[in-house]
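During the no-cost extension, the postdoctoral fellow (Dr. R.K.) reprocessed legacy sequence entries with the updated structure-token encoder. One reprocessed record is reproduced below for audit purposes.
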Amino acid sequence: MNGSNRRPSQSEPETPAPRLLDVVRDRIRTRHYSLRTETAYANWIKRFILFHNKRHPRDMGGGEVEAFLTSLAVERNVSASTQNQALAALLFLYREVLQIDLPWMQDVVRAKRPRHLPTVLTRPEVIAVLEHLDARFELVGKLLYGTGMRLMECVRVRVKDVDFAMHQVTVRSGKGGKDRVTMLPQSLAEPLRAHLALRRMLFDQDRIDGRAEVWMPDALSVKFPNASREWSWQYVFVAQGFSVDPRSGVRRRHHIDEKEIQRQVRLAAQRSGVAKPVSPHVFRHSFATHLLEGGYDIRTVQELLGHEDVSTTMIYTHVLNRGGRGVKSPLDR
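Re-encoded structure tokens follow.
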């Protein structure tokens, strides 16, 4: 019998259809979303399906989405931003994965995020917290306050992004996927040079051991196959050990763990006696407020922070006026 006319045997296994969450992850990666977004979206979609007793999303609609979001707000008491993240994950599922653009998705009401004034430290409070930081994280804390970078922007800085001659740091793929430039404080130039000298020694040892490869964004690892082992592409702040990339399975030395920095900043605040909720992001708020206090133009501050709209930066002008500052109480008259 001619093999070209042979029909598949009934016993031959058919290729199984890909699991929904696997398709979700593939679509997210083709759009170059971050690993954090991939993890968050996959978790929300899984929770949505489990909430409705494992029904397939194709068989559900606006009522089920609203029921899920309402449950998050009423029973789980999640914040508006968390609820909106869950909605964004479901919008991605229906539009990008299932290719369903249903009219009811436009009518789902997004939770309104409350407008809170950011926590801002005074200059003495900033100094107190920095002085109580563990020595391993002191330079990171000073960079966060001295440049206004977000935490993830700071830990992802690479050697090539630091320009000592121009006294500036280039922030790559910040919020919204945009690059920007912020200043490098002159007082940190020498400490950062010393840190990079030690970092270079570690890199040289990793290269001798054949373990100097670093993660490369987008498709640069294909376009420049040797760049991942070059000094200029190395992270400035790295982890003490190696970890496995959850996407590729490659074992590398990644950047420093942001969760450890968050924990160390909280501990430093407690040790310093500062009676405010302090996180790494508070350094960014303090950076912006202190620049405005120093008389810098709000447009300049907006550019340094990477805000798309100046209205976002305007929140710090409200901080400056908080508590009736500049208004004399009638009790003092």
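The domain at 20-107 is CATH 1.10.150.130 (DNA polymerase; domain 1). The first strand starts at residue 162 and ends at 163. The remaining legacy entries will be reprocessed before the final report is submitted.
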